[in-house]
Amino acid sequence: MFCAELPDEYRGGLWLTHFFRSARTVSLCFDSRQPHPILEVLVSETTESPNIDTYWGWWYNREQKFTLVYAKKMLVELCFPYGSKVEEGCGRGNLVPVNVKVIRKVGL
User: Fold this and answer.
1) Which end of the chain is more exposed for a tag (fewer CB within 10 A), N or C?
2) Are 4 and 30 within 8 A, CB to CB?
3) Cβ distance 36 to 107 under 8 Å?
4) Number of structural domains the chain divides into
5) Do 29 and 4 touch, CB atoms closer than 8 A?
6) Tens digit of pLDDT for each residue in 16-53?
7) pTM of the entire structure?
8) Quick one: residue 64, left, alpha or beta (phi over 0 = left, psi -120 to 50 = alpha)?
9) CB 20 within 8 A of CB 106
10) In the chain, how long is the greatest CA-to-CA distance?
11) Domain limits at 9?
């Protein structure tokens, strides 16, 4: 999976966003005149208790991988018109806290 690294204007530091399956798709989220670092990352379920810095991901059962990853749980919930609990109840997947491990910086 790939994502972009952006400055966090509210808390300082950096945060990861725009998680997609290809670096090219991540690059389409930005103006080419202001490029942001694109990273290859490994997303895995965490065993730690969620906190303010926890990323959340949707484990999609059909594809057996994470498909939606965001810095806040609410942002994943917005992807489901009736909420993630309905989708979980239908056996489509699970909303879980995740670890995001940076593998490398990608150049396009």
Assistant:
1) C
2) yes
3) no
4) 1
5) yes
6) 999 999 999 999 988 777 778 999 999 999 988 888 78
7) 0.87
8) left
9) no
10) 44
11) 2-106
